């Protein structure tokens, strides 16, 4: 098998990005025939059809889409390697994949502590709710929500449900009676629509409903609506902690309902060779332990 030229990979990435041989050639500053030859070389090397040639635009085959992920990752890492050589004092890059709400409301507010922890790092943070993205391991570290049934998953913290609202909506002290919840609009997370029924059932409350309902796309949008005073949201204790501390939200009713699911730290195979990624993982575990201790002061430290 002959060596695969780097120019073929760049041509393939350009073709996938631009959608046609003509546009890819324009993007690369070369002739269309050159791009066509590079793609043919790549397909012959792999013994796979990567591209379906159409009249105006090309379409990647299933094998082509799968291979594109590898090509993009390889070219990105080569570019990062070149940048590190040209800037030897540059901070190492660590890629993190997280649930959007966890990234916005728990992780990012804590990243100011990285300097105090003396972790010099250039973070690249991506968010996703899809399991497939976590399986592809295009990251060093990831935080996933679930039961922890992932190889090597380390528990950061379990979660619980608590109704929250803007202080201007229910008052800084929350409501006086649980039935008072019915006087307000209830905000619902469409991705996890069972949260309100689950919380009510845990308190033995039947036939209680909001004055009206508002359905939103996900936990992040739902909590943003609560901060804006649009209604009461059934929040995750992990996600609302920062908003409660800074006064953007209050507990509409103080009782929490523990959940079996929690947030778990995943470390990809590539993180094993990245000392900064390992240091960042240790920092995340320590921050999670501090959070758990603050939530339950009676809990003994490990």
Provide the fold topology.
Layout: H1 6-18, H2 21-28, H3 32-46, E1 51-52, E2 59-60, H4 62-86, E3 93-98, H5 100-110, H6 113-116, E4 122-127, H7 131-135, E5 141-146, E6 154-165, H8 167-170, E7 185-189, H9 195-202, E8 212-216, H10 219-227, E9 232-236, H11 237-245, E10 250-251, E11 257-267, H12 275-295
Parallel strand pairs: 3-4, 3-5, 7-8, 7-9
Antiparallel strand pairs: 1-2, 5-11, 6-9, 6-10, 6-11
The helix content is: 40-55%
Low-confidence blocks of residues: 297-302
The count of β-strands is 11
Listing every helix as H and every strand as E from the N terminus to the C terminus, the arrangement reads HHHEEHEHHEHEEHEHEHEHEEH
Rg over alpha carbons: 25 Å
| Mean pLDDT figure | 87
Sheet of most strands: 9 strands, mixed
Which strand-content bin applies to the residues?
A: 15-25%
Treating each run of at least 4 consecutive H or I residues as one helix, how many helices? 12
Organism: Paracidovorax wautersii
Protein name: LysR family glycine cleavage system transcriptional activator
Pfam family, one: HTH_1
Keywords: DNA-binding, Transcription, Transcription regulation
């Amino acid at each position: 098998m002959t060596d695969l030229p780097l120019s073929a990979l760049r041509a393939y990435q350009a073709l996938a990005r631009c959608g046609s041989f003509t546009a890819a050639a324009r993007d690369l500053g070369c002739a269309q025939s050159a791009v066509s030859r590079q793609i043919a070389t790549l397909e012959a090397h792999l013994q796979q059809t990567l591209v379906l040639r159409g009249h105006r635009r090309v379409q990647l085959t299933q094998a082509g889409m799968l291979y594109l992920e590898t090509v993009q990752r390889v070219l990105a890492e080569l570019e990062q390697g070149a940048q590190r050589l040209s800037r030897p004092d540059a901070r190492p890059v660590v890629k993190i994949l997280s649930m959007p709400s966890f990234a916005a409301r728990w992780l990012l507010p804590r990243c100011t502590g990285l300097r105090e922890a003396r972790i010099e790092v250039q973070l690249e943070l991506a968010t996703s709710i899809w399991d497939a993205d976590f399986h592809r391991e295009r990251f060093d570290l990831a935080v996933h929500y679930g039961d922890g049934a992932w190889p090597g998953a380390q528990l950061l913290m379990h979660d619980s449900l608590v109704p929250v609202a803007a202080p201007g909506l229910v008052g800084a002290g929350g409501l006086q009676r649980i039935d008072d919840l019915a006087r307000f609009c209830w905000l619902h997370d469409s991705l996890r629509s069972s949260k309100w029924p689950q919380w009510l059932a845990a308190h033995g409350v039947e036939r209680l409903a909001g004055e009206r309902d508002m359905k939103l796309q996900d936990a992040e949008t739902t909590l943003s609506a609560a901060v804006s005073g649009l209604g009461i949201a059934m929040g995750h204790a992990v996600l609302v902690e920062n908003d409660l501390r800074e006064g953007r939200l209050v507990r509409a009713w103080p009782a929490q309902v523990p959940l079996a699911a929690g947030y778990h730290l995943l470390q990809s195979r590539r993180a094993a060779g990245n000392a900064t990624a390992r240091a960042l993982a240790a920092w995340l575990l320590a921050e999670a332990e501090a959070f758990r201790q603050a939530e339950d002061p009676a809990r003994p430290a490990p």
